[in-house]
Amino acid sequence: MSAAARALAFALLFVASSVTRGWAGPELASTNDNRTPAGTLQSGVLTLRLEARMGEIYPDGPDQPGALVKAFAVEGGPLQVPSPLIRVPEGTEIRATIRNRLDEPMFVHGLYSRGVTRATDDVVSVGAGDEREVRFVAGTPGTYFYWAAPTANDPVQQRPGTDTQLSGAFIVDPRGGPPIADRVFVFTTWGRERVLTPNGVVRFLINGASWPRTERLTYEIGETVRMRLVNAGGAVHPMHLHGFYFNIDSRGDERIDLIYAAGSSHFANTERLLPGRTFSLTWIPTRPGNWLFHCHDTVHLQRRRAMDGQPMPLTHTDHEINHATEMMAGPVIGITVRPNGDAGPAEAITRRQLRLIAQVDRGGTAAEPAYGFSLEDRGRTMPAESPYLPGPTIVLKKDEPVGITVENRLPEATAVHWHGIELESYYDGVAGFAGSPGRIAPAIAPGTAFEARFTPPRSGTFIYHAHVDEVRQQQAGLSGALVVVDSPDEYDATHDLVLLMSAPRLIADDNVVLINGTPTPKPREMRVGDHYRLRLINVHVSRPNVFMRLFRDGQLTMWQPIAKDGRDLPSDQTTAVPSEVQVGNGETYDFEFVPVAPGQHLFEVKGQGGAFLASMRIDVH
Questions:
Q1: CA distance 207 to 412
Q2: C-alpha 572, offset from chain centre
Q3: pLDDT tens, 448-464?
Q4: pLDDT tens-digit readout, 189-215
Q5: Cβ burial, residue 490 (10 Å; 0-12/13-18/19+)
Q6: Candidates 3.20.20.70, 3.40.50.1100, 2.60.40.420, 3.90.190.20; CATH matching 352-421+430-488
Q7: Which one of 9, 36, 317, 345 counts the least CB within 10 Å of its CB?
Q8: For the chain, what are the domain ranges?
Q9: pTM score > 0.70 for this model?
């Protein structure tokens, strides 16, 4: 069947399934929390019978429109989205039977030994109504996945909508001893159109659900949390954990998994998860409260059109809101960390006081507003008047308590998230969610203010940005850099450069990005032999694949990695490298650059595929 014919067939099936409810239609595909391995494991052999059938998913709830999809089930059992979990010890012999109860062929990837050279094709072809058996030995331990498509050549991220849920995790545990206690999360993407568009009907799912219907997790302070993440969907997800760092234990894909040595330090609070890729992490919570773990490609968090294509209600508002449940959707996990005893009364301490004012800027409209921040600090206001773009860089001192009062002079509610800062949950900036029972953070209504209190425990590069109606407010201009240093008096902005990449205020200008608030930044000057710290920040709402590069005479120079997400890198990761890095939404990277020769240099931002987005000239003398 041609791609056009498949698309037409899917459209007809979708309409038929979502016009009305209450009739005896296709079976419901249940969400799979990936906690129960499929099949029967006995004497070192896993026997597994899978079958593919047509079913329906309802990511927005059973009272909302759904969609027809193909899905896998254990034979005789319910359909599951994502597909049944395959989890076995290293060395297990797997005997899997695949029955295709669909009306067209399918091609199954991922059912083969890892770490073993194979002489035959890894793709299993199963005709309509046919059955195939595969036998292999589970190889190298790691986090993998299996998936199916209507042709042998369909990439996992470009499958048509009906085929997008034919994906499941395949975990190989080390031999000997019980499996490590962890959670497995499979990301999938459903879309009415094969190619995702900003205004298209699309759902980003974690274990078959979209926030706020995703599973809520609960942990204790000090508990070791382990997660495995698999992206079998069609979009990049820079996964950001509020308030904490996690250690990346492995990175891989369908075929291989690079597991880092025990004790190896790869800390981050945001990690890009590309389509067809995996990573695993370890996290130890140290502070109680409610925390989010979510994709930081802000467009993915929008409440989009309903599954039948009807528009959702507008999300921006001028009154008190529960931002987390009313405005967020998609790849989001809510986590509660329980306290281990009475924290006691809050200690009265002296704090440095700042005032961050969110206000209307010039040139906006109701549909595409222009907003911005100004900062009041020790009697000085930055900037003193419009334009309020870029957001002022907030410079704080390590270990110095601070209180930042956010004053809302906008016509709508807002809140500010202190991205990457280790702080109390109540001040994290997620209205209606952050905090703990009886003390949940409010949205900041127009004409009111909210004081965020924290003591930054480390020097580094961080971000502050609106966390209400994120795409609208961040694109309007509500974001900025937050720099923590050992000594603010010694902070030298001529040698310590913030390079913050953000979205243009007008959607029509989507082919450009802003560097420090402008598409045409003024040239910078440097001197040969001087040491410069470059703080690279991506707070764009929808560009998770940008490359930031530094050229001289058309060639990459060299720079030395210093920090990732505001945390210093270990010495074994600070070797000088060519001056190019790929930066996802919500990531920050610090590099030291020492010019070795005079001449014109160029700092450049390019998108996926090499599309030019922005540049800044640097003249070295």
A1: 34
A2: 27
A3: 999 999 999 999 999 99
A4: 998 766 556 567 899 999 999 999 999
A5: exposed
A6: 2.60.40.420
A7: 345
A8: 3-241+245-284, 352-421+430-488, 524-620
A9: yes
